[in-house]
Design a protein that fits this description.
The protein has one domain. Helix content is 48%, strand content 16%. It contains three helices and three strands; from the N terminus they run H-E-H-E-E-H.
Length: 128
């Protein structure tokens, strides 16, 4: 008798190999998506920081006067003054511009440190 086809062992071996390859692919894609979200939020923070720097360069009187003093500007103020456009989180929801803020602290005579605090969905899961 001449039978054509695959044996049970060959089929099980093929399914096992495909399962391993699928697992590796899913893990890799999940990691790539996570890293993309991290980079998205880092870029968003950088953009907001840059807008705050521009705002304070145009309004130098608002900068902290003494070393260790700090001042805060909300993202809403940056948007209303056209330094920034409204933005969304990775799920396409609007971020909370009223509660998002940038704190500028005077470190030395001409050195300021900017700290961005964004209020977006799940941002803490990807940053900090």
């Amino acid at each position: 008798m001449n039978r054509k086809g695959f044996t049970l062992v060959e089929i099980l071996g093929t399914i096992t190999i495909l399962g391993i390859i699928s697992s590796i692919a899913i893990i890799s894609i999940t990691r790539i998506l996570y890293n993309a979200k991290v980079e998205y939020y880092k870029s968003l923070e950088s953009t907001v920081e840059s807008a705050a720097r521009d705002y304070y360069n145009d309004h130098r009187i608002l900068l902290p006067e003494n070393t260790s003093d700090s001042k805060t500007v909300t993202v809403d103020v940056l948007i209303n003054n056209k330094y920034l456009t409204s933005f969304k989180d990775h799920k396409k929801n609007k971020c909370d511009a009223v509660n998002s803020k940038v704190t500028v602290k005077r470190v030395s005579l001409d050195n300021y440190k900017y700290d961005v605090d964004l209020k977006c969905t799940d941002i803490d899961k990807y940053l900090k």
